[in-house]
Amino acid sequence: MQHEGETFGIPMIVRGSLERLTPVLMTALVAAFALLPLILASGEPGKEILHPVALVIFGGLVSSTLLDTLLTPVLFYRWGEQPLNQLLSQQGANHETV
Question: CA 36, 40, 45 angle in degrees (round to 5)?
Fold first, then answer.
C-alpha cells in the first residue's frame, strides 16, 4: 500500500489474491501431478502403504489451496485493516527518523 499508493479495500485484496494465485497453483499442481501415479495404483502390489499416504497428501493440497485462495482474503478483509495501518504508521515513523 505504501509503495504503490493502494488503499485498503476489496480491489487491493483481489489484486493481492490474484498475484498469489499463480505460484500457489503451480506448487500445488506439481505436487498433485507427482502423486497421481500413487493414487491411481491403489490395487498394485507394494502400494498398500503409499496409496493412503498419497490420498492424505493430495487431500491436504486441495484443502490448503482452497483455504488459501478463498478464506485468507476474507479473513484479511475482516481483520487486516487495523494491523496493516499500524504497520504502515510504524514504517512511516521509521523512515522519518532515518
Answer: 120
Residue 98 is predicted with a pLDDT of 47
Q: Which residue has the cell 489474491?
A: 17
Q: What global pTM score does this model have? A: 0.73
Pairs from 83-92 (Cβ < 8 Å, separation ≥ 24) = 84/1, 84/8, 85/8, 88/1, 88/2, 91/2, 92/2
Q: What is the pLDDT of residues 63-86, one digit of tens each?
A: 999 999 999 999 999 998 888 888
With a cut of 60, say whether residue 96 has pLDDT above it. no
